[in-house]
Amino acid sequence: MNVRSFLARKRQGKKISMVTCYDASFARVLNETEVDCLLVGDSLAMVIYGYPTTVHATLEMMVRHTEAVRRGAPDKMIIADMPFLSMQQGKAHAVHAAGELIRAGADAVKVEGWKGIEEEIAHLVQAGIPVMGHLGLTPQFYYAFGGFRVQGRDEASRTYILEGAGRLEALGCFGIVLECIPSGLARVVTERISIPTIGIGAGSDTDGQVLVLYDLGGVGLEKPFRFVRRYAEVGLAVKEAVDRFVEDVVEGRFPTREESFEDE
Ligand code: KIV
Ligand code: NA
């Protein structure tokens, strides 16, 4: 998968699958799956570092984790998130940040929103850096939105998303993530543009779907959002495994002779 085959998928009517990944161990697992692309999302600020929002993801964090994911998944298309405010400090800053992510192993970068950053997006595209857009519930706008809430329900928000999708396509983006918007709006956006839409909490009519790996795998124990489907309970499995380990240690059942070294 690369930017060209990604774009071709829409014409072929073949859905695109994407999951987030932040580290080399999971990247090695995902490299063996059929998933089309990996997203080093700035959600790592929350999932990996425990911050309340994604505004805490720094360029340094994004670079480190992108390098780790690339080492683990040499064969996958990797998209890395441009962190909070990296597009709002001018073209030179934006292209520097995006360049670091590409050098770290990303094939493309993803940016949230569109108003006020159109020149920067065009600059990245002209520099040969593939850019994916992200509209709807863009988590870097947490404070502006007054929390994590479904977008595109009122006319102003709907217009912002519809207009933005057209602008992002015109600026040369190769795809757009649509997050937490009504399914009907996601369908309209998907029909109006010729680049693929990747939905999360945006219904089934987008050109592809993305989920946070820790959500779909149940790594965290908290109750998932409505738009998440849990395919495994990894967190519960690890909890049970560790409790069994502790019991074995306490009871002296671990380690056995086979699990130990003897004198020659
Ligand atoms: O950071 C992230 O995980 C994302 C996806 C949810 C689209 O941006
Ligand atoms: Na993100």
Structure description:
The chain is an alpha/beta fold. It is 42% helix and 14% strand. It has eleven helices and eight strands. The protein has an eight-stranded parallel beta barrel with strand order 1-2-3-4-5-6-7-8, surrounded by six helices. Strand 1, helix 2 and strand 2 form a beta-alpha-beta unit. It binds 3-methyl-2-oxobutanoic acid and sodium ion.
List keywords for this structure.
264 residues, alpha/beta, TIM Barrel, 11 helices, 8 strands, binds 3-methyl-2-oxobutanoic acid, binds sodium ion
Structure class: alpha/beta
Element-level helix/strand string: HEHEHHEHEHEHHEHEEHH
CATH architecture: Alpha-Beta Barrel
Give the fraction of residues assigned to helices.
Answer: 40-55%
Low-confidence runs (pLDDT<50, min 5 residues)? Answer: none
Q: Which strands sit side by side, in order, in the main sheet?
A: 1-2-3-4-5-6-7-8
CATH topology annotation: TIM Barrel
Cα Rg: 20 Å
The domain tally reads 1
CA-based shape? globular
Biggest β-sheet description: 8 strands, parallel, barrel
The number of helical elements comes to: 11
- The chain-level mean pLDDT equals 98
Q: CATH class, please?
A: Alpha Beta
Distance between the termini: 52 Å
CATH superfamily: Phosphoenolpyruvate-binding domains
Pfam family, one: Pantoate_transf
Catalytic activity: (6R)-5,10-methylene-5,6,7,8-tetrahydrofolate + 3-methyl-2-oxobutanoate + H2O = 2-dehydropantoate + (6S)-5,6,7,8-tetrahydrofolate
Function: Catalyzes the reversible reaction in which hydroxymethyl group from 5,10-methylenetetrahydrofolate is transferred onto alpha-ketoisovalerate to form ketopantoate.
Protein name: 3-methyl-2-oxobutanoate hydroxymethyltransferase
